[in-house]
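Sequence in, structure out.
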Amino acid sequence: MGGGIEHRMVKVNGINMHVAEKGQGPIVLLIHGFPELWYSWRHQIMGLAARGYRAVAPDLRGYGETDAPPTQSSYTVFHIVGDLVALIETLGEDQVFVVGHDWGAYMAWFLCLFRPDRVKALVNLSVVFIPRNPKWKPVQGLRAVLGDDYYMCRFQEPGEAEAEFASINTTEVMKIFLTLRDPNPLMMPKGKMRDLASKEITLPSWLSEDDINYYADKFNKTGFTGGFNYYRNFDPNWELLAAWTGAQVKVPAKFIIGDQDLTYLMPGTKDYIHQGRFKKDVPFLEEIVVMEGVAHFINQEKADEITMHIYDFIQKF
């Protein structure tokens, strides 16, 4: 991926973090999800740089060329948000714009909850703020509603999902995930990856073989444990976040989701978004955009539209 995107390593929070960046001007910090990399933002980096911003996209802890600490407990919400705050420090700005997708959105909500002083405004994609329910441990709750084969539950057991992913080619793993368009909850009974890999996958127009190969090359080197460790800290995060029960996210925010996104169709999510509770938890939520016919990897599938949505919002501040 050329286009004048610069790459460097920075020291943050005791680890080395790989950062891709381009442009001059106010900083927009772009935070990726699973199973992704800085590369998921390639189009937004170019588009925002062309509009007078400095776009900065790290590989998160455990991903790509950023360090991957070996212990599962090194991937809590405090570690990840700590990395991001330290990264903002190294960029030399008091405040930045933040854009998150998937796990990046999850972490961006908490970055804004813990350190609103560091964030001018937030644009989050795909994953709503998840307020802490003191009666409902996340993984337990997911198992009760969706069963053991639900992918977040299957990712819990160290080594198990790794073995499943290793049973097929990493290129196929990336194709399966990035082309996923089934809006129903993602079930991963044992052997499902091999079944999916045996089917012919036609890449959509927004995803090239080169894109797939870039991801596959990086995940071949790192494996997926770093990414799985985010899921494995769902319950520990729930325990750590007890003091923030009922706390509100108080930064100006915009939220964008596709109507074919499996997160949009999770039980309770539509009601949360459209019946006022989301706005109660995020009082400065100014816009909610539901894009028709769009699935989970929204920033890649609708690259130009997402760049414009980000720009239209942040240029107000």
